[in-house]
Amino acid sequence: MAKITKTRFAPSPTGIMHIGNLRSALYEYLIARSEGGKFLLRIEDTDRERYVEGAVEAIYRTLDVCGLHHDEGPDIGGPNGPYVQSERLHLYSEYADQLVASGHAYPCFCSVERLADMREDEETEFIGYDRRCRDIDPAIAAHRVAAGEPHVIRQRMPLDGETTFSDEVYGVITVMNQELEDQILIKSDGYPTYNFANVIDDHLMEITHVVRGSEYLSSTPKYCILYDAFGWEIPTFVHLPLIVGEDGKKLSKRHGSTSFEELVKDGYLPEAIINMIAFLGWAPGGETREIFSLDELEKIFSAKGINKAPAVFAYDKLNWMNEQYIRRLPFEKWRAMVKEIADPLFDEKKYDVDTLAHVLRERVTKLSDIPEMIRFLTERLPYERELFFNKRAKLDADSASVILNELRPKLETVAVWDETTLSALLGQACEETGRKKGQVMGALRVALAAQRVTPGGATETAMILGREEALARLAAAIDYLKG
């Protein structure tokens, strides 16, 4: 019987979810779903010094908003729990003791001060730990441990030979064992190191595919040696390429927002963020399109499509994707988004949210653009005579004053303030005066907005403002142009 594919997302609660973390979660989720497997969530909270209050809740919130729903985890349980490492401490000590008993690990009593002095000694031939405690008689070491002497547990690495492993992205990699340090498995406070706890938990939780950043490639031989020491099957490794900015340097704050919550705050839709992140190192074979829903990604994703070259996070590309998702939103959902942003800005003033949503839909790149785009609607901006100048329409402040005075009495008679009525009235005004549409609409647009360029035309602006506010602004413009 074929083994079911199982992946896990195992974040440390040390802050907000960065793009790299989210990509790991997404690829782990997609590998599991594409093969009909299971996706697990495990919280790795053994690094207590870096623990950040509220980080666990941020992990749950991000996964939920992105649609990456796990099958096992701390909040829903499962057959291999608990799914929080700090609740599994007894397990790590038990397995470390097994390794000591079998000779694959040993207690190390070297003090922090000695290790620091060793690293500062320029004559030492060791880059890492010099294995001073490696050959202490096991019985003596056990006696010292029983006496309560401070110690850590270190892995006894082979001193010769080589370790070879295969990675789905980087292929077959071989490392000389003599280059591997006797890494710490259990720290002096009883907590496991990241490398050790990962191996234990991945085995006990039946993880078949370990997906993580390429920065962990160098640690993988140590993992493999641990698996062999226990006689366990080694999982499939999938190491992901580095994410860089457009300058080729590792993505960081200097490039812009680098976390999911920051990107959402900047106005990007979660669906667009997920779509963008899916392409950070992966491409669908034989497909040229770039817009995929999460459901579609689940069907076509394969680890074979992951590229080892660094993946470039381009904000222009994310902007384009976000625009595509906004255009495709059901209108009622888009209207609700616009209303949520616009309501507090209009401050209880009446406005036509339907027309505003229609006007913005084809012009907005990200939600955070909206406040500035509609500022002319939510507050009255100062007039300047130069705003009314339009060489192409043969319009200036003086001619605009005449046009607005002609329009004012006509607009004041309008009872039904809708697109059909306003368009008909303005068209009739052009015919009666012999003026070009660009002149009339241009003068009215500036009168209502106090700026030349607006998301919608004069008619849409008048509709959004409503009859009372539009007429009040028209009167204010006429008064200004008298001066």
Any overview of this molecule?
The protein has 20 helices and eleven strands. Helix 16 packs across helix 17 (419-433), helix 16 (397-412) crosses helix 18 and helix 18 (437-449) crosses helix 20. The chain has 483 residues and is mainly alpha-helical. It has helices at residues 19-34, 55-66, 89-102, 112-120, 138-146, 194-204, 220-230, 260-265, 270-278, 294-300, 315-328, 331-346, 353-361, 370-373, 375-378, 397-412, 419-433, 437-449, 458-465, 467-482; strands at 6-9, 38-41, 105-108, 152-155, 162-167, 171-176, 184-186, 209-213, 236-240, 243-244, 311-312. It is elongated. The N and C termini lie far apart (88 Å). The mean pLDDT is 94. The longest helix is centred in the first third of the chain and has 16 residues, at 19-34. 45% of the residues lie in helices and 9% in strands. Strand 1, helix 1 and strand 2 form a beta-alpha-beta unit. It has a three-stranded antiparallel beta sheet. Strands 1-2 form a two-stranded parallel ribbon. A two-stranded antiparallel ribbon has the order 5-6.
